[in-house]
Amino acid sequence: MGVRYLFFLMLFIFSFAHSEERKIAIVGAGPAGLSAAIYAARAMHEVVLYTGHRDSQLLKTEQVDNYIGAPEVSGFNLMEKMLSQLKGLNIELIERNVVALSKEGHRYRIEDKNGDVRTYKAVIFATGSVAKTLHLENEDQLWGRGLSTCALCDGNLFKGKDVVVIGGGNSALEEALYLSRIARRVYIVHRRDSFRGDKTLQEALRKQSNIITCMDSEVVKLNQGNGSLTGIELISKSKKKRSEIRVSGVFYAIGSMPNTQCLDSNDFKDILGSGGEVVTTKWGVVTDMPGFFVAGDVADRRFSQAITAAGDGCKAALEMDAYIGQR
Ligand SMILES: Cc1cc2nc3c(=O)[nH]c(=O)nc-3n(C[C@H](O)[C@H](O)[C@H](O)COP(=O)(O)OP(=O)(O)OC[C@H]3O[C@@H](n4cnc5c(N)ncnc54)[C@H](O)[C@@H]3O)c2cc1C
After folding, report:
1. Which one from 55, 116, 150, 162 is the annotated catalytic residue?
2. pTM for this one?
3. For a FRET experiment, which of 8, 13, 33, 227 has its CA 20 to 30 Å from that of 143?
4. Best mutation site among 61, 78, 79, 120 for ligand 1 pocket (most ligand atoms within 8 Å of CB)
5. pLDDT for 139-174, tens place per residue?
6. In the chain, where does DSSP find H-type helix?
């Protein structure tokens, strides 16, 4: 009896340890992480999905009109639809943030917010990014009510209206140019007296008659009426003059912060870019660290769309599958 008990105990421990060894981790439950989870689970991998606080950037938008197959859907409902697609798949959900991710031999060690530690043979990192904001007084109430960080996403809501873009780098110039085709007038407000963005973009901006530049100026207030944005107040820095512009939309284009704080700075220093993003070497998802893949806005500084993030998730899962197959 004792020997049989010992045998089954050892079998249990062995199979548990073995099954732990086979698992792969996906960190993040936005379009990138969820799409990666679906592809990885369907390829028969045992997936552990760290969802964090489930605060995908997509939840910041009232309406998504450009996700193929799901027209006129709110960001919240689109995320719910994506999550519901996990049902019935072999995916273990851990609804906590990852606080530390490091290398342990050939494996990756993940510690979550509760202090639980597990190691994985491969990781798909899809934690997204957070747009920088000015932290003005009523920002929180105005997201999706005139205030946005994504012209490509929300620009169409302002057809024939006046809008403001805040920023002076390439993304601000690109957003202003994009919006100039949709909006009546586009103001671009920059706190310095010259733009940082490429000369060619600056030239294109100058040619666009409905773009008005407000240099050396800082936005100090967002005005609102009936719960929606109605304009901005700005101060010209050198003249100390305060003025108001009435607009229906304001787009922050002052950069974003990839969510890479949990990556161990020693292990990951060679694959982190100057803006904190993960640098990829192939297909936008493969990195220089074997077994460590990325997907979505945490690495993508150019497109930052739900559909491109979901596409990255698919690619990362397929590359991860090929990597494990080769091993
Ligand atoms: C205002 C606004 C409007 C937008 N509108 C549109 C639109 O209309 N159409 C469109 O295509 N795109 C839109 N976007 C862009 C879109 O939201 C993003 O491109 C997309 O969500 C990126 O997906 P992702 O999975 O890379 O990151 P996210 O969707 O941001 O998801 C990141 C996930 O990682 C998790 N996470 C973060 N840190 C940790 C951690 N340490 N541990 C565990 N989990 C973690 C988060 O909780 C979240 O679940 C909009 C963005 C904004 C800000």
Report:
1. 150
2. 0.86
3. 33
4. 61
5. 999 998 999 999 988 999 999 999 999 999 998 999
6. 2-22, 31-42, 75-84, 139-142, 151-154, 170-180, 199-207, 265-268, 306-326
